[in-house]
Design brief:
Length: about 110
């Protein structure tokens, strides 16, 4: 998690202080629609790389997706600690809490 914290902080610094030539600053200047578009693109690239079975490409695309998600988190003012807390809560759950019900096909 340390590298995520460092990257999250750097992204936050770029949000606060424009730096010429910074891709992160460019994303913030374009707004949430552009950031969301990039998140979607990167998610699709993860899916394609995984489908193709190339672990190296998949890992790289996952890193790209994580980066863009961190930009989105900064844009939406979502602290990394909030996400970490939710993950810790979920880690403590035992089993699958969802119950699957067979649907009534006549209704």
């Amino acid at each position: 998690m340390e590298v995520l914290k460092e990257l999250y902080e750097i992204v936050g610094e770029r949000k606060e202080q424009f730096e010429e030539g910074s891709y992160t600053c460019y994303l913030f200047s374009q707004g949430v629609d552009k950031i969301l578009k990039k998140c979607g693109e990167e998610c699709s690239e993860v899916i394609i790389a995984a489908k193709n079975g190339n672990n190296e490409d998949t890992a790289g695309e996952i890193c790209d997706l994580i980066y863009h998600l961190l930009v989105l988190m900064q844009e939406q003012n979502i602290p990394l600690e909030q996400v970490e807390g939710i993950l810790q809560e979920r880690r403590q759950k035992i089993g699958n809490l969802k119950k699957f019900h067979q649907s009534n096909k006549n209704s």
